[in-house]
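Methods, example record. To illustrate the input and output format used throughout this study, we show the complete record for Radical SAM protein. The sequence lines were provided to the predictor; the line carrying structure tokens was produced by it.
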Amino acid sequence: MHLVYADGQGNVYDHPELHGLARSGDMIVELLEEELIPLPEGATLSLLPNSRAVGMNPSTGEMLPLPEGSQAVGALLPQGYTRLCLPGYVKTDKSYKLPLFGYTAVVWKDGGFYVAAEKTDDPFKWNPLNCDRAAVRSGVAALTAKYPENRLYEHLSNCALGYECLTSSNTFLNRWEGGVPVSYSCNAGCFGCISEQPDDSGFVSPQTRMNFRPRVDEIVQVMLEHLKTPESIISFGQGCEGEPSTQAKLIIEAIREVRSITDMGYININTNAGLSDHIRGIVDAGLDLMRVSTISALDDHYNAYYKPRGYSLASVEKSLKYASSQGVYTSINYLVFPGVTDREEEVEAMVEFVKRTGLKLIQMRNLNIDPESYLELIPPSQGELLGMKTMLDIFREELPEVVIGSYTHVPPAGEARTKRAIARF
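The corresponding predicted structure is encoded as:
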């Protein structure tokens, strides 16, 4: 498994002598054969600016950074693949913060690129190669012409065409999971937020947050256009907005109006679930699916990353328990990072959290962050480092009824729909 690196012009090479290494947290580690899979379709290679790759002399075991002028290389994985290791690198400028991506270790092996990853879901629906950009442009033209006064379609058209966001693209393709953003405000100050950053954060947000409060009729139009098949999903809570439950009144009114017209498809919310009373109202209005973002089931780690305003991890747990008790199909958007998520204390806490809340699905999502900044922010490790592959095995063994995936699923055999219909009337 040869080291992959780039020269100063961005040309990528495999080193003829050195083996590739990886990082787990802040430690340089050797890659294991069982951690490697061929570079998945839809993955891309990415330079790590202001860094040097670190390789290993296979004869002596010595770890060697490449000379200045070279750059480390990582892979950016499509959804459906969970990163097991970071690239092996050292920064040449320790003050520089890497752009907000989920860098994965990559090596050259058997004539091709291999990455340290595990397939944890079927990537078909979220593979960018399966999104026809011409069809998206056609859908944008059709729906913005049909609803010329709807500011949501105008906003989503930039997400679909400018950012090539797959969820907003689905909104214009009328397929799978589509998005309907509603909130410009948030009750958390997430470190590395992808839509809004303080001026002194040192990060550049890859997306622009919406800057208006939509009307109920605008929301309803988007929802009704999308909810036309039994397996369609419309989701509040997108990367281009804040916390959707801060606009609970809008969401509740929209759900009630939509469900008075059609029972087709599923209504989902992607939320931090900190506003328990707001979540209760949204659940009672007829919510089908709820995905809660979390990075840890430990208070100190959770608080360091999310910087919650007026709520706690206990509030999140309360929301999940209530939603689950009302038949909502609940999941977590689990932001994972090698060398942190696989700490012994993190794994134990998450297993107990899942059992207490009745979660149905864990969506493994690679945390897009500058590694050094994140590791400086959070509490140090208290126990053994288990490894990401072992962590996944523990989840599957300890939580046999819980699905391990990477994105929102339709409940099996209409489970949540039946329960919600009973609770609604």
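Annotations derived from this record:
Confidence is low (pLDDT under 50) at residues 419-425.
The CA atoms of residues 337 and 367 lie 6 Å apart.
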